[in-house]
Amino acid sequence: MDILKRIAELKQKPGFKDNVGMILIHNGTVRSWSRKDKKTVVVLEVTPDLEKIESIRRELLKREGIFDIITEAKTGKFHPGDDLLFLIVAGDIRENIKPVLAELLDRVKSEAITKKEIMAN
User: Fold this and answer.
1) Given 41, 54, 80, 114, which residue has the most CB atoms within 10 angstroms?
2) How far apart are alpha carbons 73 and 82 in whole angstroms?
């Protein structure tokens, strides 16, 4: 995802100037180590449930102060440093935006993404 391009497109939407005071972005990347045991990860296989992600996005879009939510989850095999997941939440004030980004991230990761780490020998 070209984040700057997506933000520029977002700013062109009708109502943006009247309804948005904050844009928060999550750019998830592949770590070179496992959370479980700190072993070295050489490849991460990722399978997102895109329908579930869209369902979560639509649900959270109804929250107070939320103008728009953009998601992009990649599928396939990735190496440390590669981009995996982009989440953009735009809305009125931080008290409304921060919890939505946090919930979106937590739910997408726990409900809609399957990962398999391939470790170094």
Assistant:
1) 41
2) 12
Structure tokens of 60?
A: 């959270």
What SS3 string covers 63-99?
CCCEEEEEEEECCEEECCCCEEEEEEEEECCHHHHHH
CA distance 75 to 72: 10
And the tokens for 58?
Answer: 């639509």
Q: Which CATH superfamily is domain 3-119 in?
A: Molybdopterin biosynthesis MoaE subunit (3.90.1170.40)
pLDDT band at 10 (very low <50, low <70, confident <90, very high): very high
pTM, two decimal places: 0.93
Q: What is the predicted pLDDT for the residue at 98?
A: 98
Domain coordinates in residue numbering, the chain: 3-119
